Amino acid sequence: AVNGAAFAPVLAGSLNKLSVQRSAAGDQDGGLAAIEGAVALFRELAATNAVAFTPDLGMSLNNLSVQRSAA
After folding, report:
1. Contacts of 37 (CB under 8 A, 6+ apart)
2. FRET pair for 57, CA 20 to 30 Å: which of 5, 15, 26, 48?
């Protein structure tokens, strides 16, 4: 069986990057959806390991603010 939780940090990072790419391609709604997913995952990860994931959460929250201001 695959442990999905083991891949959560990679998925969150990929969603963060996807949001930037979608936004750059003109897909603001897709970019916003992707960054909201990344923020949700990083919030969960930071709740269990703040030292490791708070910086990533902060970066994603910054990207979320950029996406929302562009929408």
Report:
1. 12, 15
2. 26
CB 15, CB 37: distance < 8 Å: yes
Give me 10's structure tokens: 């990679």
Burial class (CB in 10 A: 0-12, 13-18, 19+), 33: middle
- pLDDT digits 0-9 by tens, 12-71: 999 999 999 999 999 999 999 999 999 999 999 999 999 999 999 999 999 999 999 987
Distance CA 28, CA 44 (A): 25
Whole-prediction pTM:
0.92
